[in-house]
Amino acid sequence: MPGSEENTYVRDQNARVDPLFTIGALTVAAVREILADLPDDAVVVVAHPDRDGTDCSPLADVQECWFLPRSGESVPIGRDADGNVHEPGPGDLYAVLLQPVM
């Protein structure tokens, strides 16, 4: 995929998503800015959203995905484990998925 400066596909796809699904959401650019001055050896910990921040886990992986805001699910970019490719619909959000250690 082209760099973020050239990638109008992501911008156009995400513009089709209801803005209510993205209120308060961080972009990759915002995360880079927030982390820019932090120590490189600090561990990133992810809070489980259903447990009021009382259950946390270190970040294990970062993946591009399609986020389906209405269901709260995500599907991979490209082929999934069954070999299927998700064709994004107007409500699908191109996103970065942060996978915690279980």
User: Radius of gyration in whole Å, from Cα?
Assistant: 15 Å
User: How many separate domains make up the residues?
Assistant: 1
Tell me the number of helical segments per DSSP (H or I, 4 or more residues long). Answer: 2
Strand content: 25-35%
Biggest pleated-sheet summary: 4 strands, antiparallel
- Mean pLDDT, all residues: 84
According to DSSP, the number of beta strands is 4
Described by the principal axes of the CA atoms, the overall outline is globular
Q: Order of SSEs, N→C?
A: HHEEEE
Low-confidence segments, ≥5 residues, pLDDT <50? none
- Helical amount among residues, as a percent range? 10-25%
N/C terminus separation: 30 Å
Description of the molecule:
The protein has helices spanning 8-15, 28-35; strands at 45-47, 56-68, 73-76, 93-100. Strand 2 (56-68) and strand 3 (73-76) form a beta hairpin. It is an alpha+beta fold and 102 residues long. The protein has 2 helices and 4 strands. 5% of the residues are buried. The model has no long low-confidence stretch (mean pLDDT 84). It has one domain. Strands 1, 2, 3 and 4 form a 4-stranded antiparallel β-sheet that branches.
Task: Give the helix/strand layout.
Elements lengths: L7 H8 L12 H8 L9 E3 L8 E13 L4 E4 L16 E8 L2
Antiparallel strand pairs: 1-2, 2-3, 2-4
Brief summary:
The chain is of the alpha+beta class and 102 residues long. The chain has helices spanning 8-15, 28-35; strands spanning 45-47, 56-68, 73-76, 93-100.
